[in-house]
């Protein structure tokens, strides 16, 4: 019995894919994935490719499916690797999941669904922390895609919730920020009320920079991949902590 709970899997790997071939298959859906990233996920136990007698990795189709699941769970559902590994371990152990959620990523074999990846306002999941070609939006693009007017955009910039670059363009996350603020205004909040969110985010960025900057200074590609994962993990954990603290605070105000 193999690690994935399927007999004979090691034998099937003799004609498996090289890590380069796996990268080529994944790049279409995950343009920022790298060989270093795949190696990192292997080191963390999220995928376990076979090896040739010469020591080269050989990936079975199930391994590629597993990698797709991990990358989708990170990008679309913002999950830490620890949680994703628990999902995969549950599948390996034959755990029976609840009914699938329509918007969840395709699950390899039998995994517990992750949820629909959207927030209570129906907004898409937050963007991943992968770096890649920078998408730059003009003011007109932002207004159209976010569904806001010039006055609202001016307020968002005034209170630091949006920050255009030196050339006047906005980053790809600006659309989601603007939509989120717009959804919050329906509850009576205004951009000026949300300045504390920007201040808190800036403090978190400063804290994370202290942790990952030394790793980013290394020229080793694997070191950079590890730093990327640390950023992603800490960011996901900080979002979880923030949500729990807000819920706890509101529960305390409500007297529960």
From TrEMBL:
SMART domains: HTH_MERR. InterPro entries: DNA-bd_dom_put_sf (IPR009061), MerR-type_HTH_dom (IPR000551), MerR_fam (IPR047057). It comes from the Bacteria. The keyword DNA-binding applies. Keywords: DNA-binding. Residues 32-90 form the HTH merR-type domain. The keyword Phosphoprotein does not apply. Residues 93-117 are annotated as: Disordered. Pfam families: MerR_1 (PF13411). This is MerR family transcriptional regulator. It comes from Amycolatopsis albidoflavus.
């Amino acid at each position: 019995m193999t690690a994935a709970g399927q007999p004979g899997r090691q034998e099937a790997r003799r004609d498996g894919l090289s890590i380069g071939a796996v990268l080529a298959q994944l790049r279409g859906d995950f343009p920022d994935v790298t060989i270093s990233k795949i190696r990192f996920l292997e080191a963390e136990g999220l995928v376990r490719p076979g090896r040739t007698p010469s020591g080269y990795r050989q990936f079975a189709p199930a391994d590629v499916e597993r990698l797709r699941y991990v990358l989708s769970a990170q990008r679309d559902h913002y999950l830490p690797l620890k949680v994703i590994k628990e999902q995969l371990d549950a599948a390996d152990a034959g755990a029976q999941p609840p009914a699938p959620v329509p918007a969840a990523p395709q699950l390899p074999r039998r995994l517990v669904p992750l949820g629909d990846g959207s927030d209570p306002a129906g907004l898409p999941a937050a963007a991943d922390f992968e770096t890649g070609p920078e998408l730059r939006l003009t003011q007109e693009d932002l207004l159209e895609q976010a569904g806001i007017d010039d006055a609202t955009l001016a307020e968002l910039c005034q209170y630091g919730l949006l920050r255009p670059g030196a050339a006047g363009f906005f980053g790809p996350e600006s659309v989601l920020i603007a939509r989120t603020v717009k959804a919050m205004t329906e509850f009576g909040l205004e951009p000026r009320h949300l300045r504390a969110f920007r201040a808190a985010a800036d403090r978190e960025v400063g804290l994370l920079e202290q942790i990952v900057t030394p790793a980013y200074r290394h020229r080793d590609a694997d070191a950079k991949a590890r730093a990327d994962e640390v950023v992603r993990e800490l960011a996901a954990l900080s979002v979880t902590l923030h949500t729990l603290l807000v819920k706890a605070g509101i529960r305390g105000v409500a007297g529960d």
